[in-house]
Design goal:
The complex is a heterodimer.
Chain A: E1 6-12, E2 15-21, E3 44-51, E4 54-60, E5 70-75, E6 83-90, E7 95-101
Antiparallel strand pairs in A: 1-2, 2-5, 3-4, 3-6, 6-7
Chain B: H1 2-19, H2 28-42, H3 60-70, H4 76-86, H5 96-100, E1 113-115, E2 120-122, H6 124-134, H7 145-157, H8 171-185, H9 195-201, E3 206-207, E4 210-211, E5 224-226, E6 231-233, H10 235-245, H11 256-267, E7 278-280
Helix pairs in contact in B: 1-2, 4-7, 6-7, 8-11
Classes of the chains: A mainly beta, B mainly alpha.
Chain lengths: 103, 281
Amino acid sequence: MAKPVKIRAKLKGEVASVKSLMPHPMETGARKDPEGNLIAAHYIETVTCEHNGEVVVVADWGPSVSKNPYFAFEILSAKAGDNVKVSWTDNLGETSSGETTLK
Amino acid sequence: MKMNRIACAALTAILACPLLAGQAVADPAQDLAAFRDLYQNRFPDIPLAAHKDGAYALDEAKREQWLEMEDFPPYEIAVDDGAELYGETFPGGGSYGECLGEGAPAVKQMYPRFDVSAGQVVTLQMALNDCRVKGGLEPLAYDGEEIAALAAYVAMESRGELIDFAIPDEPGALAAYESGKAFYYTRRGQLNFACSSCHLQNAGMMLRAERLSAAIGHATHWPVYRGKWERVGSLHRRFQECNVQVRAEALDEQSETYRNLEYFLTYMNNGMELNGPASRK
């Protein structure tokens, strides 16, 4: 099972700055193992960020993003107690997510 | 210029040591005092303890970038993985915690140490693998991610402990120390650099776009997540990298020479706080 997204958020006035770290191998499909066989592609395709269930950021990623990606963004007009969720879907159909409550 | 002259004098004294090692002119405690004096004189405005952050103690702009990263450090994944591995019980009974003994998992400050009965320097990685073998598991590869994750977890738990040990009055221990010291000051490779050429003689200077860190503080923060590696790796892996960069041949992780080098380097960091794991470019 895929590891959960690590997420941390700081609220400053009405702006929440959200930082997330997604443990993921992000294999491009072009690398070879020591025996010379291709390592199968395995990378995140879509990242979705939600604020109280409303989608605020959608990112289309691909094989060029590095291993264990770090993704940060800001949400305007946020307040304490709001829920922030970051989730991803990869090319193998696996998904994972992480959420936090602003304070 | 006065400062430079003092630094040079201290440097000359230190560099002379290996040449005279056979005559036993300096004991480890004297080496340590000279080492600390050198950096104190070279960087009068930086407290010795601050060198635990390596090059980031010397370069304000790079420090800012690094602190920004520390908000959400990339080594956290390895620490979590390490905690999970550490929690496993061995098939033959026992666990890492029981095996590492008192204070576990905050035991990083006890390594490397000289094991008198085995007659060699024992590092944290070796102790971890020793525990596995005793518990009926296969030892982990020293260059793998699992041993690095375990070490990262132990380092995280040991944060704030001080490096505080003396070289025991044993011929073997002293020989290990001297061997590490000799390696440190010996020039090698096509470029003919010793460890000391960069981190002692030229500490604080620029090497192209990078700031050369001081050797004091080099042993406090391992294992390290290095951007270039895209994972957490050991001090020995960094030794390998340094060796290759000067076009010398890299030795194996946990080889006797590197363990002795780690022993020497850690001794030179006596009195400093452990702040591993860390992230570096």
